[in-house]
Amino acid sequence: MYTISGHHHVSMLTKNAQMNHDFYQNVLGLRRVKKTVNQDNPTMYHLFYGDLTGSAGTELSFFEMPIAGRTVRGTNAITQIGLLVPSFDSLIFWKKRFESLDVNHGELTTYAGRDALHFEDSEGLRMVLLNNNGEKVPEQWSGWEGSIIKRNNRILGIGTIEITVRYLERLAKTLKDMFGYVEVTRSDTEAIYQSVAGQSFGEIVVKQKVGPSEKPGRGSIHHLAIRVKDEEELRYWDEIVKERGFQSTGVVDRFYFRSLYFREANGILFEIATDGPGFTADSTVEELGKTLDLPPFLEERRAEIEAKLTPLD
Fold it and tell me: For residue 300, what pLDDT band results from cuts at 50, 70 and 90?
């Protein structure tokens, strides 16, 4: 049986690509590893940030929607992204940095058993920095030396993801019984699951909350992608998803990876994505994110696509 090796990426909505770039590269120090377009709607940018090469598990991706309104928070939504930093001293560094740059943030606290610092980006996307405390991270993760943040404080990759749902047990069954996540803690209204036992790079906190569903807008989280090795594993999961009664998109070729999408019983959108080929499929490591890259099937429409995009950088 195949297993899920952690988070692959998280995808969000932004109203303004330039403002988004300024925050994630110039404030958080992540590398913009791919400037491309939404393959289903190439009139909008799709930006990816991560480590040196945008390794699986480090990728934050954003669809630009200039007409996006504000998010009305509620249940049945992915509600927070955890980002791992090396140490408690790193959290102190980031608190001071957020203060100096007027980034909305809280006090040093704990979350999911780790030292933590909650903050929001300029559009209200909720995130939390988590002390990795020297623990293991995936071997593929590689720091970007061009970052404005020094190595000892640099964001390593994605940690605990928070999902808020009306019916906790429905999502719990999907994570445990279908994907093989380990249940770490459980109460009536909250539980923690890990795809790799003891590791936060595949950890999900599930919270139960009644009330209206979230109305997505700028700063909302569109979906969580979880990680598999290759297309053989992906096709295995496609069959499992269908056997469990969920509607799968089937395998979709995104050029930089292959994936499938489905919604679990609360309506949370999951993607299952392969590690490769990766963002160097059409770029050198040195040139990642600098120019507009298009998958081959969109290349013949480059002039039309570029004419509809607001220049970035």
Answer: very high
**DSSP letter at 51?**
S
- Output the pLDDT for position 117: 99
Smallest Cα–Cα separation from 272: which of 1, 5, 63, 60? Answer: 5
| The two three-digit tokens of residue 255, written as one number | 């050029």
- Under the banding of pLDDT at 50, 70 and 90, the label for residue 313 is confident
List the alpha helices (DSSP H) in the chain. 17-26, 88-101, 168-173, 231-243, 296-299, 302-308
User: Could you give the CA distance from residue 209 to residue 207 in angstroms, rounded to a whole number?
Assistant: 6
Buried/exposed code over 35-65 (b: 16+ C-beta within 10 A; e: otherwise): bbbebeebebbbbbbbbbbbbbbbbbbbbbb
Q: What is the predicted pLDDT for the residue at 257? A: 98
Number of H helices, E strands in the chain: 6, 16
Is the confidence at residue 107, as pLDDT, over 90?
Answer: yes
Residue with tokens 């499992």: 240
For residue 271, the surrounding DSSP H or E stretch is strand 269-277
Q: How far is CA 8 from CA 64, 151, 247, 258, in A?
A: 20, 22, 21, 12
